[in-house]
Structures are given as structure tokens and as C-alpha cells.
Design a protein that fits this description.
single chain, alpha+beta, Glutaredoxin, Glutathione S-transferase Yfyf (Class Pi), Chain A, domain 2, 4-stranded mixed sheet, 8 helices, 4 strands
Length: about 210
């Protein structure tokens, strides 16, 4: 079983989950800068040309990070993707996150962190709108976390890793979240988990 990844937001979730669950798989880095995601071999795994992708079984593949996290939880017999009455609530937060919280956080990550790497300035109008939207939805999450350790039933789940996907880039992406104390406390708690703190395999040094 292989997990194709690169060091970006969505693969970070899948890699963190794989490490947290001690999944028996091989990490395969995809070099996006050199277009490895556009090769015929990779497009056969994911026609979208994106990572992460999990290859398993007899040539089967699964794409989308949230689906991969759930699959790995089932495969390892864990409770990370719950099958009890918590599941609808986890689903709710996964859906809300994709449509609201990480959607706008990822926009700021792209504008403030990725675009400058390619010699491009952030788009001020896009940044302003994303900041406005992120603050709005951060208030919802912050209020929800006011008396909770984790997002659902005070037990770690795929919802936590999904919602926190952009938070490791809080400073570099200039996410306007400093006023949300409960989000900060929750992410500090996640950072005590080694798999979340360091999800990616170490890359070989230039000399070795």
C-alpha cells in the first residue's frame, strides 16, 4: 500500500493520519514542481492530478484526504472515524470545514505563502475577502470549542485533523486567528501528538 503525497495542506492530513494510526504503508513523494502529478501513471491513480492518493489492493486507488483518513481508520481497526452515534456529527464538521473554514484558510495559504514562491504578489481583494470569511467561520468553531478538548465528543477524530489542516501554517499564511483563544488552545493540544506535529517523512539531504 502506498500513500502519494507532497508537503501541502490536504496531503498533510492524510500523512498525519497514517502516522497516527501506524498504518502499514509506503510514503511516495510526488514532485509537483516537476509535474509528476501530470504523468499518465499518476493520472491513472487520480484523474484530477492531485495528491494525496492511496494505492491499495490490486491496483485500486482512493483520492481525497478525508476519505483516505476514514479508510485508514477502518483498515487499522481504529476509532478515528467513528461508527457510533458520533459519526453524523463528524460528517457535519467535515462538510462544514470543506465549505467554510479550511476553504478560506487555504485561500490565504495560497495567496500569502505559495504565490510569493513563484514571484507573484498576493491578490489584495482575494486576501481581504478570505480574511473576512475566515474570521466569520472561526467564530463558529471557536465558540464550539469553548468547553471541548476535541471537536466531537471530546475524542480525537478525523474531524480534528480536517479542521486543523491549515493551522500549522498559521503564521506563514497570515491567518487572522489570533483573537480565537479556543482554536489556539485546541491546536496546541493537537501539537502534542507527534504524528500531527511531524506528519511528513524526512527528505534526504542534498549531500546524501
Amino acid at each position: 500500500m502506498k500513500l502519494f503525497y507532497c508537503e501541502t495542506l490536504n496531503p498533510r492530513k492524510a500523512c498525519a493520519a497514517a502516522r497516527y494510526l501506524n498504518a502499514d504503508l509506503e510514503f511516495v513523494r510526488v514532485d509537483l514542481a516537476n509535474g509528476e502529478q501530470r504523468t499518465p501513471e499518476f493520472l491513472a491513480l487520480n484523474p484530477n492530478g492531485k495528491v494525496p492518493v492511496l494505492q491499495y489492493g490490486d491496483g485500486q486507488s482512493l483520492w481525497e484526504a478525508n476519505a483516505i483518513m476514514c479508510f485508514l481508520s477502518d483498515m487499522t481497526g481504529a476509532d478515528f472515524w467513528p461508527k457510533d452515534d458520533r459519526q453524523p456529527d463528524v460528517m457535519r464538521w467535515l462538510s462544514w470545514d470543506a465549505s467554510h473554514f479550511t476553504l478560506h484558510a487555504a485561500t490565504l495559504w495560497f495567496e500569502n505563502e505559495l504565490r510569493p514562491l513563484f514571484g507573484q504578489a498576493p491578490d489584495p481583494a482575494v486576501v481581504e475577502q478570505a480574511e473576512l470569511q475566515l474570521r466569520q467561520f472561526a467564530q463558529v468553531l471557536d465558540s464550539h470549542l469553548a468547553h471541548r478538548i476535541f471537536v466531537v465528543a471530546d475524542r480525537l477524530s478525523v474531524a480534528d485533523f480536517a479542521l486543523a489542516a491549515a493551522l500549522p501554517y498559521w503564521r506563514s499564511a497570515r491567518l487572522p486567528l489570533d483573537d480565537f483563544e479556543h482554536i489556539k488552545r485546541w491546536h496546541d493540544q493537537l501539537n502534542t501528538i507527534p504524528a500531527w506535529r511531524e506528519p511528513f517523512p524526512a527528505r534526504p539531504s542534498a549531500g546524501g
